[in-house]
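User: tokens in, sequence out, please.
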């Protein structure tokens, strides 16, 4: 008969089991998770308080339609329709980010020179931000030169050899408008004057430095770095946040930059905005100049063509007189004039664009497509003209030539005047709607965001740490897992006995048995679990070959001696005659729990120096006798291999109802494997969250190799939560909890 019942969970049970497993893991490691989350919260709060604030400066630019440029929109609209291409926002964004625009701000503000006070690590900047009144005493106890207040420095020139770009140099205030420069390339510090251009010779070449302003007491230290110009330009290009505002094709561009110096990023943004507008004006002015030059070349030709057309028409009328072409002829004439005017205008526009772009440019290709379509439409009108009488055809053609040439000439003349105005006015197609004020409120760190994120990250890391610890470093804690993976029945799960340490400390020689938990606190959950084991053992003994119960474990510290002595006390309390044998002749100490001496026990009995009657000792507990280890021998395993062991076990088995043998750890020494063949039942004690699955499997293998058979596993040290409901270790779909079910007082 097998008292342990195995069951295969259904898929729904497995899902619930998985959830329970993770809940158990979280609760078992709640302090680890709480500590990690608290640590991340503390780091987040420190970061939110001490991190340098980051500000955001932004500008807004509008890319205007070329036809909306100057006052008198109708005047410029004809120029746009003939000679200009509307700015594309995507293209303007790339121009904004170009080196042409960004380099101007870098050069004007000398952004490749980084000069700032030297602050104490981590907290120095924070202290300086909150202590801006006056100048501080540099350093710590006069050492280090750290700035603690409103110290500042301005450097107009700092040119170093290419080999020293990116290296840190240090300027130390000496008082009397003097300073000392030290750093890479200088074997000895050099001195200079504030406001005076200085030239210092380094190991890599000359260093040119002009300090225009230095505000700090004697000993104050400043860090200065000369970076590569191209590196700084590239960094700003990367850091610029550029996007089209509002809906698509709004033609409004927002540009922003983040940094720790609000004044500096405001200056950078405004310089970039102004330079972008200036570049746009210059580009449009240059385009207007090229278009104007082209028109001035075309106007005399168009005027001569107009005069020729008028002369030809006048000659025809003098020869044939005035003719009426009728209503239909006038309609055809109007359509032909419009088609030819548009066609010639497009050809003029294409010729203008070809002076600036190649033949494969998208604008040129688009105009070619329009010309092709207009030529088809014009061909249809020409067919209608050819269907008219020959005299009317001639009149229509002569009048059409005059009207087309006149319209083109007047349009070119007006365009020339408008381009002159545009060139003189230096008007571009973009404008800066909003400049960048100095930001007052930092955008980062945002405490309302940093702290919750810190807690969230801490919880995630805590859960991960708990998972890793449980998966890779934790021991067994699930009876079902032991049964499935090790093939061993779990006879009992014993909760962790928190009271045991306290009662052990209170025990003394007069009442040693008080250190036995089953006697001191019989209502303890661990004791109740052993009572369940006592019931299960009765059925197990029915199939066992004798009444000898061997208790061992994979390694020291699993609680086998605690279980042995309490289990023996409970069986004795149930009316059975029990003997507890301390067979750990290396580190056994059960004699202390009974207040008895070690000598005169098992080792002497095996050596033939004592009799069974003298080795068996009475205890203060009814029905419970005890056999100590005896004097610790030098060869415990050899003693156990003597035939005398079988005789001792058989005699004890005859005298007592149950013999409980507390054996040493089987993975540590071979003693338990020698004792196992003499026992009818062998139990392995595993400590929850400590004993590894592999240790259990190997322990069972060694018992079997020694000729014994493992009856089951006692899972000790299970952590439970008090109360009616709680989560502890899982067994199937259940959780181990402690229930308050004490007897009522009469």
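Assistant: Sequence out:
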């Amino acid at each position: 008969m097998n008292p342990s019942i195995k069951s295969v969970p259904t898929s729904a049970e497995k899902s619930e089991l998985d959830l329970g497993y993770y809940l158990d893991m979280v609760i078992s490691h709640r302090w680890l998770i709480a500590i990690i989350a608290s640590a991340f919260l503390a780091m987040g709060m420190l970061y939110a308080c001490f991190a340098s604030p980051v500000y955001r400066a932004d500008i807004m630019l509008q890319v205007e339609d070329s036809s909306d440029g100057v006052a008198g929109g109708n005047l410029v609209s004809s120029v746009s329709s003939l000679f200009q291409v509307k700015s594309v926002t995507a293209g303007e964004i790339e121009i904004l980010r170009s080196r042409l625009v960004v380099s101007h701000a870098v050069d004007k503000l000398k952004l490749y020179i980084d000069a700032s006070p030297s602050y104490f690590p981590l907290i120095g900047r924070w202290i300086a931000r909150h202590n801006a009144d006056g100048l501080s005493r540099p350093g710590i106890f006069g050492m280090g030169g750290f700035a603690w207040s409103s110290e500042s420095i301005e450097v107009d020139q700092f040119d170093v050899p290419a080999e020293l770009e990116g290296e840190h140099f240090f300027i130390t205030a000496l008082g009397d408008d003097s300073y000392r420069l030290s750093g890479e390339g200088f074997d000895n510090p050099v001195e200079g004057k504030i406001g005076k251009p200085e030239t210092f010779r380094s190991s890599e070449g000359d260093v040119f430095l002009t300090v225009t302003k230095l505000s700090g007491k004697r000993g104050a230290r400043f860090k200065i770095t000369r970076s590569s110009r191209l590196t700084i330009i590239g960094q700003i290009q990367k850091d610029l946040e550029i996007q089209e505002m509002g809906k698509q094709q709004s033609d409004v561009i927002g540009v922003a930059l983040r940094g720790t110096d609000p004044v500096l990023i405001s200056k950078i943004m405004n310089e970039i905005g102004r330079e972008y507008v200036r570049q746009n004006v210059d580009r449009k002015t240059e385009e207007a100049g090229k278009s104007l030059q082209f028109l001035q070349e075309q106007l005399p030709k168009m005027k001569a063509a107009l005069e020729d057309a008028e002369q030809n028409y006048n000659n025809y009328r003098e020869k044939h007189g005035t003719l009426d072409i009728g209503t239909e002829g006038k309609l055809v004439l109007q359509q032909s004039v419009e088609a030819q005017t548009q066609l010639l205008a497009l050809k003029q526009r294409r010729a203008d664009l070809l002076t600036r772009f190649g033949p494969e440019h998208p604008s040129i290709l688009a105009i070619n497509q329009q010309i092709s379509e207009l030529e088809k439409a014009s061909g249809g009108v020409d067919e209608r003209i050819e269907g008219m009488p020959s005299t009317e055809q001639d009149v229509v053609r002569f009048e059409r030539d005059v009207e087309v040439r006149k319209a083109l000439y007047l349009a070119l003349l007006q365009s020339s005047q408008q381009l002159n105005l545009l060139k003189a006015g230096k008007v571009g197609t973009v404008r800066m709607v909003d400049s960048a004020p100095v930001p007052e409120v930092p955008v980062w760190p945002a405490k309302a965001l940093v702290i919750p994120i810190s807690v969230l990250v801490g919880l995630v890391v805590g859960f991960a740490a708990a998972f890793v610890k449980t998966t890779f470093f934790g021991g067994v804690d699930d009876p079902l897992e032991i049964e499935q993976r090790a093939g061993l029945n779990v006879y009992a799960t014993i909760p962790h006995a928190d009271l045991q340490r306290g009662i052990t400390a209170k025990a003394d020689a007069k009442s040693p048995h008080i250190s036995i938990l089953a006697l001191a606190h019989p209502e303890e959950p661990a004791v109740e679990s052993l009572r369940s084991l006592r019931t299960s053992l009765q059925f197990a003994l029915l199939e066992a070959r004798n009444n000898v119960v061997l208790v061992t474990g994979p390694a020291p510290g699993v609680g086998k001696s605690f279980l042995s002595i309490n289990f023996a006390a409970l069986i004795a309390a149930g009316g059975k005659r029990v003997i507890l044998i301390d067979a750990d002749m290396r580190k056994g100490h059960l004699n202390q729990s009974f207040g008895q001496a070690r000598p005169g026990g098992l080792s002497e009995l095996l050596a033939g120096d004592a009799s069974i009657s003298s080795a068996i000792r009475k205890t203060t507990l009814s029905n419970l006798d005890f056999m100590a280890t005896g004097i610790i021998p030098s060869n415990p395993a050899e003693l156990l291999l003597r035939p005398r062991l079988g005789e001792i076990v058989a005699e004890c088995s005859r005298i007592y109802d149950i013999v409980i043998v507390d054996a040493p750890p089987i993975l540590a020494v071979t003693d338990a494997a020698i004792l196992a063949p003499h026992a009818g039942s062998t139990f392995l004690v595993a400590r929850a969250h400590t004993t590894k699955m592999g240790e259990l499997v190997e322990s069972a293998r060694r018992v079997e190799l020694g000729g014994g058979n493992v009856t089951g596993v006692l899972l000790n040290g299970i952590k439970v939560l008090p109360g009616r409901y709680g989560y502890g270790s899982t067994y199937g779909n259940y959780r181990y909890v402690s229930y308050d079910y004490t007897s009522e007082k009469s």
